[in-house]
Amino acid sequence: QVQVVESGGGLVQPGGSLRLSCAASGSTASIKDMAWYRAAPGKRRELVASIPSTGSTTYADSVKGRFTISRDNARNTVYLQMDNLKPEDTAVYYCYITAGTTILYGTWGQGTQVTVSS
């Protein structure tokens, strides 16, 4: 099993920055892909950014050029650097990690609130 703990959310002014962290524990050797999703008020979760074990990163069009996803495999941690934040970025952000050997499974973080407001 993989467990994840998120941190870094909070209140920030438009144009500001936040860095989200998601640290995994447990069966970390089986971790494959990592991603960040978000759910704005009244909306379902949408993919923000993903970073596979191999290959290119992926970003939603709405965050390209502003957000950067990265991972530190030694620390079993995925980060989301969010710059030039906009009010429309306000949402609950969720970490999602895919792991497994013979069978793949996904683990969701509990979510962390990001509020962009003056």
List keywords for this structure.
11 strands, single chain, 7-stranded mixed sheet, about 120 residues, 4-stranded antiparallel sheet, mainly beta
Helix/strand layout:
Blueprint: E1 2-7, E2 10-12, E3 18-26, E4 31-39, E5 46-51, E6 58-59, E7 67-72, E8 77-82, E9 91-100, E10 104-108, E11 112-116
Parallel strand pairs: 2-11
Antiparallel strand pairs: 1-3, 3-8, 4-5, 4-9, 5-6, 7-8, 9-10, 9-11
The 3D shape can be described as: elongated
Integer-rounded radius of gyration: 14 Å
Strand % is over 45%
Number of helices: 0
DSSP strand count: 11
* Biggest β-sheet strands, sense, barrel: 7 strands, mixed
Helix content: under 10%
Structural class by SSE content? mainly beta
First-to-last CA distance: 40 Å
The secondary-structure element order is EEEEEEEEEEE
Query: Unreliable stretches, pLDDT < 50, 5 or more residues?
Result: none
The average pLDDT score comes to 96
Would you give an account of this structure?
The chain has strands spanning 2-7, 10-12, 18-26, 31-39, 46-51, 58-59, 67-72, 77-82, 91-100, 104-108, 112-116. It is mainly β and 118 residues long. The strands form two sheets. Strands 2, 4, 5, 6, 9, 10 and 11 form a seven-stranded mixed beta sheet that branches. A four-stranded antiparallel beta sheet has the order 1-3-8-7, with no helix packed on it. A hairpin with a 4-residue loop joins strand 7 (67-72) and strand 8.
